[in-house]
């Protein structure tokens, strides 16, 4: 009886033993860590790349931003930081490879991340905001901003001595209210990030106020970063077991042996990086304007109008991604209109010079702020203005020359041509003019072989007059 009962339950027992064996030897699925490669200026393209990389990351163990940047736009930086602070998974910013840097906007991103790491021979800092054209005051920092001291002359002397030892520093704030507002806003922002992550607050403020910078070893020693790693696998090994604070609560990292999912910028990001260039946007705007001008003045071909419309729309798309001063765009547009008006109106160069000056001023005022990789240098602006003026004047010269040429088509071309009478039937006569047989009429009867000159045209009938002597062969 007992033997039969055991035989009945044996299949169930065998399945249970098999499941226990599988649970004992089957390896658990490894965690996945996504690595976003960000190399270059922080702009709309890199912001879009990072935000899209963080959006579908809920099933990941962590996201690593492999960063190497000289800085970038404030708007793009804040967009990235907002995405990091709201990320459901830990974000590790890793300044890599050796020789890379996290300057300016990169410093803010490093401070905002849950874990900050750097590779050897890298640096971080120099996060002072820079306005278009720099700041007044000779290019040296002002000690008066938020120093809390009473003796301003002593502070000025100390700063001057420090500047003499260390060389030029950030542009002076002086009495420029806008500059002080931008600097104090940046200081408050990076201090809040440092306090949130428990990192060195003093260096964060000095990085903005004095453009201070640290090497990777010094940053680790002073509590700016948590990890110094030679590569991504070493980084994941060192942060394994580290506890980080997320919006949903605290979380312990399990990154040792994680699967690395490398993400390079795709075609969309590369295209945005090309378009988000103020120099290219300026050139596209000019090509678009002049393409439409050529199409409107000489309709029928179509290519200038189509190309001009596409370039103008691309320029507008680039402008809306950048911190553009629309007064600068309006000045550039006014300059192009004045150059065209110079060709069509006898202003003796006044409109042309005004157009060049307007384009140069518009280019200088084009950006609300200056950042690495997004500046519009004066030589480029001047060269663009001169090239636009030369193109317009060349087109105007060709246009005026074409107006002086004799007509080569149409009814007016027939006036003055000579021909020879071929057939005469009563009052009707035909003559060979311009290689074609035309019906002609004259005040007196015509004879075959007689030479005539065209004096008028009425529909398909030419009015001619006889030529008394041979004054040339038929045209």
TrEMBL record:
Signal peptide residues on this chain, from the entry's feature table: 1-30
Biased composition (Basic and acidic residues): 143-164
Compartments where found: Membrane
Region span, Disordered: 132-177
Keywords assigned by UniProt, alphabetized: Membrane, Signal, Transmembrane, Transmembrane helix
SUPFAM superfamilies in the cross-refs: ClpP/crotonase (SSF52096), NfeD domain-like (SSF141322)
Residue span(s) of domain NfeD-like C-terminal: 411-466
Keyword Membrane (UniProt): yes
Occurrences of domain NfeD integral membrane (ranges): 280-394
Topology in the lipid bilayer: Multi-pass membrane protein
Segments crossing the lipid bilayer: 271-293, 300-318, 324-341, 348-367, 379-400
GO CC terms: membrane
Main location as per UniProt: membrane
The NfeD1b N-terminal domain, residue ranges: 33-134
Name of the protein in question: Nodulation protein NfeD
Species this protein is from: Denitromonas iodatirespirans
Lineage: Bacteria, Pseudomonadati, Pseudomonadota, Betaproteobacteria, Rhodocyclales
């Amino acid at each position: 009886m007992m033997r039969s009962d055991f035989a009945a339950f044996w299949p169930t027992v065998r399945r249970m033993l098999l499941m226990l064996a599988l649970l004992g030897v089957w390896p658990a699925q490894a965690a996945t860590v996504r690595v976003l490669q960000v190399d270059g200026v922080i702009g709309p393209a890199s912001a879009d790349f990072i935000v899209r990389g963080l959006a579908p990351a809920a099933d990941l163990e962590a996201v690593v931003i492999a960063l190497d940047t000289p800085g970038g736009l404030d708007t793009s930086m804040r967009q990235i930081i907002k995405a990091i602070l709201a990320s459901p998974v830990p974000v590790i910013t890793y300044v890599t490879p050796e020789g890379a840097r996290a300057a300016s906007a990169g410093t803010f991103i490093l401070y905002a991340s849950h874990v900050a790491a750097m590779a050897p021979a890298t640096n971080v800092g120099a996060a002072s905001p820079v306005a278009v054209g720099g700041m007044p005051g000779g290019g040296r920092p002002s000690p008066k901003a938020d120093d809390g001291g009473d003796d301003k002359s002593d502070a000025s002397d100390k700063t001057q001595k420090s500047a003499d030892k260390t060389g030029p520093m950030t542009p002076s704030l002086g009495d420029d209210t806008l500059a002080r507002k931008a600097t104090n806003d940046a200081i408050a922002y990076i201090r809040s990030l440092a306090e949130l992550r428990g990192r060195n607050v003093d260096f964060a403020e000095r990085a903005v106020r004095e453009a201070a910078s640290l090497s990777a070893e010094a940053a680790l020693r002073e509590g700016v970063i948590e990890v110094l790693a030679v590569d991504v696998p070493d980084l994941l090994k060192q942060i394994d077991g580290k506890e980080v604070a997320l919006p949903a609560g605290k979380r312990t990292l399990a990154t040792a042996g994680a699967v690395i999912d490398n993400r390079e910028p795709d075609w969309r990001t590369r295209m945005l990086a090309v378009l988000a260039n103020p120099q290219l946007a300026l050139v596209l705007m000019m090509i678009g304007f002049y393409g439409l001008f050529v199409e409107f003045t000489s309709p029928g071909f179509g290519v200038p109008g189509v190309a001009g419309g596409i370039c103008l729309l691309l320029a507008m798309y680039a402008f809306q991604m950048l911190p553009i001063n629309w007064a600068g765009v309006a000045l550039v547009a006014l300059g192009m209109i004045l150059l065209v008006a110079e060709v069509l109106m006898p202003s003796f160069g006044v409109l042309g010079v005004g157009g060049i000056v307007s384009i140069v001023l518009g280019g200088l005022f084009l950006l609300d702020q200056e950042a690495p990789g997004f500046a519009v240098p004066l030589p480029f602006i001047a060269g663009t203005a001169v090239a636009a003026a030369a193109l317009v004047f060349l087109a105007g010269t060709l246009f005026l020359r074409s107006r002086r040429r004799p007509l080569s088509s149409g009814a007016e071309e027939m006036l003055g041509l000579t021909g020879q009478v071929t057939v005469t039937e009563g009052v009707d006569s035909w003559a060979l003019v311009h290689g074609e047989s035309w019906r002609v009429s004259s005040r007196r009867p015509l004879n075959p072989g007689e030479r005539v000159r065209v004096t008028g045209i009425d529909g398909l009938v030419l009015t001619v007059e006889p030529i008394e002597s041979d004054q040339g062969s038929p045209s």
